[in-house]
Specification:
alpha+beta, 50 strands
Length: 1443
Amino acid sequence: MEFLKYVFRYFAPPEPDETQTQLAQKADLAVKGMEELIPVYSSDVTLSGRLLRYIEHVNREEKSAAITQATGLRVEHGTRKIHASVLLPKEEVYYKLMPDGNYVQATHAQSTLSAIPAPPKQDVPKANLINAGEWDGWPNGHFEQDFSPEEIEATANLRVHWAVRINGGDRKGDEHAETWQRGKKASRRCLGIIECDNPTCNVITRPHTMARGINNQVNGTCRCGAVLVHRRCDVISYLWRWSDGIHYSNGGFHTHRRPTHILHLLPHEQRKFEELVKANPNSGPLQLIVGVPGLEGPGESVADISDVLLNAHRVGKERSKIKKGHVQGADALIASFSKFAAERPNFVIHSNLGEQTVICVQTNFMRSQLVKDQRLEEPVNGMVNDAAHGWWKERNSLLVVSSIYCPYLFCWVPGVLSYSNGASAAHFEHHFLAVFTSIAYEAESRKIIVVDALFAGMMDFSEAERAGFTHGFITFWMARPENTRNRQELQVAAERLLKGCREHYRAGVTRVSRISGAVPPGMAHAFTSRALALLDLPNSEEFISQSALLVQDFPKLATWMEWWIKKKALAIEPLTKKIPVTSAMGPPASLTLDPPNYPWHENSCWLDTSLQLLYVAMRSSVDEFRRIYDALPESSEIRMVFASLFERYDLDEADNVTSAVLHAQRDYLRKFLKKKRAIQSVSGFESLFSWFTELINHEDIHPSYHPISAFEVLFVEIHFCTGSSKIGGPHVEITHTPHRRRIHQLGKRDYNQFQGSFAQYFTDFISLDKEPLPGTCCWRTKEAVPLCPGERADIRYLVTSLPLLFSIEVADEVGALHDLGAELQKWDFPPTVFPDTQSSADTHGLVYDLVGLALTNVEGNHFIARYASDDKMVIYTYDDMKNNGYPTREDPASFGTHMSGKEIKLPRGFIVYQVFYLLRGGADAQDRSFQLQTAALTRKFGFQFSTNNLDTLFSMTYHDDDFIELENKKRTWLLNPLRSQTLEYISRDAPTEMSDDCLDPESEEENVVVKAGPPGTHLNPHHISLSPSPSLPDSEFELNCRCGIIGDGNSLYRYEHGEAIQCDECHEWSHIACQRDGRASNLAKDARFVCDSCDLSHHLQVKRKSKRKEMEARLALNKPLGLRLRSGRGALARVGEFWYPVRLIQKVNDGWRVQWWRENKFVMDDGPQKPGAFSIVNSTDIVDSLWNDRPGRRAIRLGQWKHANEIKTSEDILADPSTIPFREEVDTVLSPFKRLLKNLLTCGPNDLKKETIPAKAWLESIKKPIGMTLIPYSGALSIVERAQIANWLLICISKDAHLWLGRLPLAHAFTIYIAEHLKKDPKMNALGREELLEKAWEVQFTGTPSMLTDVDIERECLDRLEAEMFEVSEEAGVAGHYQWGLDAGDHQDWDPYAGMQDLNRGDHPGSDAELEEGPEFIHRERIKPSVKEKKERPKPRPKKKHV
């Protein structure tokens, strides 16, 4: 409609006279009243006039009179025509409404007064009614029609393609009514479309159903760059569902264009699609879209059926549903269900398959809890009934639960669980009938008389549930022989058993108070206060009386209050007495509670606890956190977090916060975190505070660093080296930009060093008087070979800035959970800690106050919070799984007994996991601390800082009279000196130019003292490490590579894997050689690198300009071989007379470090080259795929290997231990533990007590069977390593893989293998065997790779190489026509083209001359296979060249 208004205003006469002005003003008033003008055209596309919106129904005469009076337009109805007298401008351009519902541009001649056809008559004759087969999903105009159940099914419940919001109607109607007027009413409101204000743009966006989503859409921009506008539509359709079907009333004309994005297929379209798929079962999605193959070319296309089927992924999905349906039919489903029920007797207690499908299940334990021998003292008697959506894939299906309180487990447990395919009274009747029957069975087995009181329960405000309860109750008693009551008496008795719920009542009050049509906005607060006050009335009579007064003031809420009052017989006691509750209904009235917090939902305790502690800290210093919030840019991710916290704060201040509001707020934030990749899933269990630190990591620090500094500790380092006379004496290295740390851990060593005193730890943490730590070698290393023989000493963790919110994780507490015999370390956390003097604390607020504790249970799978009120007089414990998220007050309690000190009184089974301190003086105190620390560092070390505040992230330089800065370009040992975070300073007496001699490794004698390379590497005297230290950071860093290695890079990095590169998005590191097609190799110094986890564009189908240009870019054609070889790409390497595939790892001097393909079959098994091993190959013995290089290919004889397409997938590899043979390294590491691993096959709880087996201790800690429990933790091992270890166990431990696959022996073998690689880290040298195994288990337990991200890097690399080597096509030219080895000789006992038929594109005819052998062709005696392989396309036989 806004588009039509735009056209009208744009082409209106520019300067009307006075009379016309008055007429226009009147017309404008009429337009505002009637919405807008619609131009009407004749058949020859000439404008016949303008018409006010069609006038419909009984009030047509009244509206016509209004138009005539306001505008002078004469409207006649007797002739079914409306006349309009409107002056029209000349040569105008208008838009015509086409039959397909869209508007098209139309020009017309000058028009004057014309007769304009009236709209269609409102009473549609029966001959013109819409048939089910004619329903196209675009209902338009005014009409009403009845649809039978068969027609409803044929139209998929009258499915429409308009963007609509479905609203429920009133609660008075009944879907089983005899007339449609009394049926269940619902409505569909059209949401219009979203388009831009560019008239030449045809992009149409389908609006979201919620206002927030529409606002987000409109706030964006169109693809063309124009502003988006929401074109609203007021058409509403009403549907009355009654016993004979649906009465449908369409409420007007859609004057906007149709949405181009259609979501669903109509039933007749679905049938056509199914017929086409079944007729062509072998045609894939693309063939179905292009047209199924036929004798005369492509035939019928699914795209002709519906625009929905233009998407290949959608076609594939729908096709898969149909094909799977053929395999698993209804008979198989019923047979499977029958078998399930037979194998589990008495578990399925009731089932009904049909229109109402309900399946009720119950265990013996569940049934035993339904009947109590005596009444419990707490308010937990009776049942609680509820139904939940979202448990099943079908969105209309429900999980119905009747719960009962278990006094032994101290929680509510399900008594009966039911699957229901709907939410009608008939569905609930089946559920409750099963409940009543099972209660009666249990009572009679205990010789308890079956009476009504056994069935007492409480339920939500749902008429369907109430009716189902009543009908089930009546059906149950009518079938009992002892029953003497009629149906009416049983109905009254059933209603007396139902009770209301306080929390549901509160939630209902909040919900209806927001309905402006029932409660005026200005009276919402008064209504809420009065409605909630009803809960405190002394008796039911007073409740009913006051409710009647409330309904008198708010009459539209009479129906809602009727359920709670139930004047006939419904008991009101549950509203005024203590009632049974579950986690979904609110707190028991007997508890002393604070305002509500976040209630638990789908493993949300980690987010609920961290949000609550953030909120407690924010509430303690609201102004400081508002400054942080205001300083953050609009695009900030943590801004969203604080926005939700401030929204909660405002609700708290107004006493309007509810559990439901916080529940919705938390769930929305959870989806936001998943979208920003701060968490893995919206329903999984995550670590407590890592999501927040991940968001901090995403923040851009360039606009302003101050808000980010509130959550980070900054520290710097200085490294000294004595050097040698050869390089000019001592030299110094400093961190140019500070290290940033967000998570701080207290370990076992810290606990022992400071005797558990956090105050002492903190004093040492911020102290600048730290002892230098000796380093293994100088930082000047190249390919892990030291270039300087000097002795190195480092001073680390010189703190420059402290955060506003300081969080400390008690890391060893969690580690102790896996060893029940270990003593938990009890830290002494004082209520305050002082970064400086008492004077600074008094004048600048430079003091930390303890504000909260995060606690975890002994299993490590649940978090709760402990915090205090603002005055520290009240202590709260918050467990989101209890009391619907309401915190409980600890009484008696004090800050000294329940929050601080060494003997903190904690809930049973919980320990301190994380501690939160808040800087009392806020940002001013933070700046003061920064100034004090930097001034002290300047005096002590000669550092100079670029700024004296935290508005920007500082940089640092070193000033000493004896040293000068070394130019970056001379630091040749660094991979990229310009991007280094360090600066180096050399003695003034050192040579100004760094000669090659200065940078050469020292002699063998000088090198003996060097023990190890940089962090994460090990200097092997027999092999040169490939990864230079500059490719990795000096401090802690995370590896997250496609090959499956995930975790602490300092521990897991191995030199043979080559250099690592950091992602510019997530800042995690991965191996260059593991990136797709060598894309990370030879990047420019200012080039961005984004890892595959952050950039998923490679999964999308992109339109390529040409195959030739793609190959030129990928293969670096027309460049020398040395530039075509890149880390991560496949190549061929020579061994003797044959060439085998390798993966290029890294360039080394005059050669390459490569990894040989694990399925190579070398001629000499005892040679230096081993399948899957790493080695260095000279550059003269390496070539790439030699694309378009015919002479090069003809000169190479290919060794034998297994093709990539013959290799199983990652999942198959891990499931089949025989897939990948183990390497010698695996045997060397595991052989000493062969006896131990065999003993683990039959190990019991009391066996092997003296052995350190962390995985066994973990199983014992969680009380799981040692021999049968699966252990899913494999740490940072790649797929190949895991498969090789499994193969070793298969060969050396037991041929029966079921005894150890996924169980304790394999898990401990992983631990041993990881521990062996951790030895290579210099930091692990001091650890004993037991400590090393514990550290390895920690890596294994916390670094589990995901099957969704693991990639078989070797197979992927070979697959690309073979695609280039064996492609036969016009692009590949003559070189691709079976040319390998034709000048050199036979290959190694195989046909390399066998199995590569798919790479023959069929567009290169070739010739016999191209296949002629060269004069020096060497024939090799072939080994004939016993069974001849059948080939789809035989290889042309070479012909000898006759000289």
